[in-house]
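Below is how a single chain appears once it has passed through the pipeline. First comes the sequence as given, then the structure the pipeline wrote out for it. We keep one example in the README because the format questions we get most often are answered faster by looking than by reading.
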Amino acid sequence: QTISGEHGLDGDGQYNGTSDLQLERMNVYFNHASGDKYVPRAVLVDLEPGTMDA
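Resulting structure:
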């Protein structure tokens, strides 16, 4: 959720951002799919319990 929000994506994978830089770097974490949607390239999981408290 955090990474998709930083790249201007909503929960359905639609781009709603306002920055050209967001689109330029989109392929780092997402693949462009049909229907102008973006899908994650990987699932990132951090098991450290304290990371969200920082």
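Residues 2-45 form one domain.

See the next section for the split statistics.
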